[in-house]
């Protein structure tokens, strides 16, 4: 059953301290980088006032990418070391052993992203002077915090799917890191390619207050639906490959 597969994945995740990368991302995107942003806004009048969306910039960039990398590395490591193949002897159904790590990593990443989003707003609000704030507060940021958690789930599902298909740490990291850091900058100037910018445009459209500045998405819901559809498609591909 899927419950047994998920429980086995949870035990392995805790046993190898899989939560440590999520904790590091939480500290970096929820405290360190927002604090740096708050200090810059407080000391440089030329910068725009701090807001909910600006406080979450580290999360939509470094934070989400860090969670995706951590999840992909953990799953690909299980394939590389043979741990995943041994575990599948207990439950040979391929799609369950794709869904199980997706479920565990998605839940952990969702919680880490929500906490990081909330922490970033709180840190910036505490450090930035009142006259350098604009619409900054935990209550007003609640919708963005919730959307950040959903973004983390979808992006991590895609990352785990990549790891489940490639099954080697090197190629997996090349894709998960290479896409946002190398490919996306090359495509950023092409308007038709914005739906493919998973490390920048899509998270910004979902976590921001009103979508991507150029309006290419039209609404936050459209960006959310696209990312969800991509996650479902990635799971389908990974589940199909896992049967081989």
How are the elements arranged and paired?
Blueprint lengths: L1 H14 L3 H25 L8 H4 L1 H25 L1 H6 L5 H34 L14 H25 L2 H19 L13 H7 L12 H23 L2
Labels describing this entry:
10 helices, mainly alpha, 244 residues, globular
Describe the protein's architecture and organization.
This protein is mainly α. The chain has one domain (2-181, 197-242). The chain has 10 helices and no strands. It has helices spanning 2-15, 19-43, 52-55, 57-81, 83-88, 94-127, 142-166, 169-187, 201-207, 220-242. Helix 2 (19-43) packs antiparallel against helix 4 (57-81), helix 2 runs parallel beside helix 6 and helix 4 (57-81) runs antiparallel to helix 8. It is globular. The chain starts with a helix and ends with a helix.
Structural class assignment: mainly alpha
Look at the structure and give the mean pLDDT: 79
How many beta-strand elements? 0
Number of DSSP helical runs: 10
Cα-to-Cα separation, first versus last residue? 20 Å
Q: Supply Rg.
A: 19 Å
Strand content: under 5%
In short:
This protein has helices at residues 2-15, 19-43, 52-55, 57-81, 83-88, 94-127, 142-166, 169-187, 201-207, 220-242. It is an all-alpha fold and 244 residues long. The chain has one domain.
């Amino acid at each position: 059953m899927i419950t047994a597969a998920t429980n086995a994945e949870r035990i392995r995740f805790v046993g190898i301290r899989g939560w440590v990368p999520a904790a590091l991302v939480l500290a970096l995107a929820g405290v360190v980088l927002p604090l740096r942003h708050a200090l810059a806004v407080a000391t440089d009048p030329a910068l725009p006032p701090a807001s909910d969306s600006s406080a979450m910039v580290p999360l939509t960039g470094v934070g989400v990418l860090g969670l995706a990398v951590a999840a992909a590395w953990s799953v690909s490591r299980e394939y590389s070391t043979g741990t995943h193949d041994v575990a599948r002897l207990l439950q040979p159904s391929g799609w369950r052993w794709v869904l199980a790590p997706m479920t565990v990593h998605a839940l952990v990443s969702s919680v880490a992203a929500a906490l990081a989003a909330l922490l970033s707003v709180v840190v910036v609000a505490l450090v930035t002077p009142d006259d350098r704030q604009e619409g900054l507060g935990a209550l007003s940021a609640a919708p963005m915090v919730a959307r950040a958690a959903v973004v983390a789930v979808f992006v991590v599902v895609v990352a785990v799917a990549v790891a489940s298909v490639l099954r080697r740490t090197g190629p997996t990291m090349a894709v998960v890191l290479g896409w946002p850091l190398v490919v996306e900058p090359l495509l950023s100037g092409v308007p038709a390619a914005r739906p493919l910018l998973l490390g920048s445009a899509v998270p910004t459209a979902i976590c921001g207050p009103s979508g991507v500045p150029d309006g290419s998405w039209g609404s936050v819901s459209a960006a959310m639906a696209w990312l969800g559809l991509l996650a479902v498609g990635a799971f389908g591909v990974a589940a199909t490959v896992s049967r081989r």
